[in-house]
C-alpha cells in the first residue's frame, strides 16, 4: 500500500494492507491519535525528510514530517524486527473498518 503525510513530503510503502490496526493508549500514542499497522522493518519504505521524537525507554523513535507534522511511523532504535506505520496515512485503507486492537496500558 502507498501512503503519505498531509503535504506529501513523506511517503510510505507497505507490502499490503494490515490485517488489523492497533490503537495504543499509552501517553504518547493517545495524543498522536495514531492507528498502528505493524510490519517487518525491512518490508516498508519511508521516503522524505522526517524529524524524530524519542522518550522513555528510548527503544523507538516516532517519525513525523518536518513540513506538515503528520506522524507517519515509529521505527525501532535497536535490533527489534518490527515497526509501526500510522495506518491513517495509508491511501484507500479504511482504518475504521479494520479490526482494531486496543492496547490498554495507559501507565506508560
Ligand atoms: Zn508532510
From TrEMBL:
What PROSITE patterns does the annotation carry?
CENP_V_GFA
InterPro entries named in the record? CENP-V-like (IPR052355), CENP-V/GFA (IPR006913), Mss4-like_sf (IPR011057)
- What keyword terms does UniProt attach to this protein? Metal-binding, Zinc
**What residues does the CENP-V/GFA domain cover?**
1-108
Does the record bear Zinc in its keywords?
Answer: yes
Question: Which Pfam families does the record associate with it?
Answer: GFA
Q: Does the keyword Cell inner membrane apply?
A: no
Entry similarity comment: Belongs to the Gfa family.
What name goes with this protein? Answer: GFA family protein
Q: Which organism is it from?
A: Chelatococcus sambhunathii
